[in-house]
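Incident log, structure service

09:12 report received: a user says their structure output differs between two submissions of the same chain.
09:20 pulled the input from the user's history:
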Amino acid sequence: MEKKLVKHLCAKLSMLLVALVFLISGCATKKITQNQTVLSTINQNFEDGKLQYEHMMTLLPKPDRFPQSYAKGKMITIPSGDWVSGFYPGSLLFLYKETGEQKLLTEARRIMVPLSKEQFNNTNHDVGFMLYDSFGNALKIDPKAGDKEVLINAAKSLSSRFSEKVGSIKSWDSKNPDDFLVIIDNMMNLELLFWATKETGDSSYYKIAVAHANTAMKNHFRPDYSSYHVVNYNPKTGEVVQKRTAQGYSDSSAWARGQAWGLYGYTMVYRETKDKKYLDQANHIAEFMLNNPNMPKDYIPYWDFNAPNIPNAYRDASAAAVMASGLLELYKYNTGAKAKKYYTVAETVIKNLSSPTYKAEIGTNGGFILKHSVGHFPGNGQVDVPLTYADYYFIEAMMRYKN
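09:34 re-ran on a clean worker, output below:
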């Protein structure tokens, strides 16, 4: 009896030792040493970014206008209802967190007052961009009474655009009632809905976010895991009518920032659901981007992976910044060579965006940190200029690297 007990205990101990070795080896694959030079560069970027955004404040023409870009010596601004309005206060909040400069927080709170009315905006899908990147970050960095209410109302507005028949949130309205347009960018707005379920206990927000992610996974992606920009559905049947582009080179091309939205979006959905299919999807998108023969060696993508004039096509710093930030989260959910690859690429992007080629000198560039982004090349809009969301995701990527 004693021999059997000893044998049983030895077997159990052996199993525990195997499990311990596996756990330690798994942790070892996660351990990646931060580059102290990169950390020093990042800290300098935060200080320089503080000065840039203090400069930017002085260039806004009206108290209710938001910075979009800067071109030909002129600040280009937009109203609160534009999809990029939330990135300015979001960047200010990030820079305040990293530098402690009170002016940045004061300005963020000032501009969030005219922005707050967008909580009731149900005319597009962008309230996630507008309000989660501003009020959502404020909740984490400088919470105030009323912030949660703004976000809950925004989640209600976003949810109102969901179609059970299609299984998606409508992105853009159209003059044609037979259109139901969904863009890959919409993946980024789902984070607001996941937050709303956690905050309110109402699972409907979560279910809408998951349904949208599933429908996009089914219809937006090609066999190589590149994505279409726009999918048009029949609102009555839910069937796909058309797959096309709006901001990419062609309907069949891989618009760089669109690929980055997908990578970042599905990484976030995995974080919120822990469903491995979303992690697999994010990994597939990352591999498509990083292994693409048209990805430059410095990992700052051309504005479209299929642009006809590569290698002379414009680079898109905004796509690089979104990709880097997404990769710095995605690496945490992987192990071994894949995790190291994602981390190293993100680190490389941060280093290259910090170089004089992409980072503006203090007092120039309208106060924006980064140069050389592409907004809407086919529409000749914001081509090879600074863009507010490029700065936002660059700052976020640096914060993720540092923290």
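09:41 both user submissions now match this output. Likely a transient worker issue. Closing.
09:42 reviewer note: Confidence is low (pLDDT under 50) at residues 1-29. The beta strands are 66-71, 74-78, 162-163, 168-169, 181-183, 230-233, 240-244, 373-376, 381-385.
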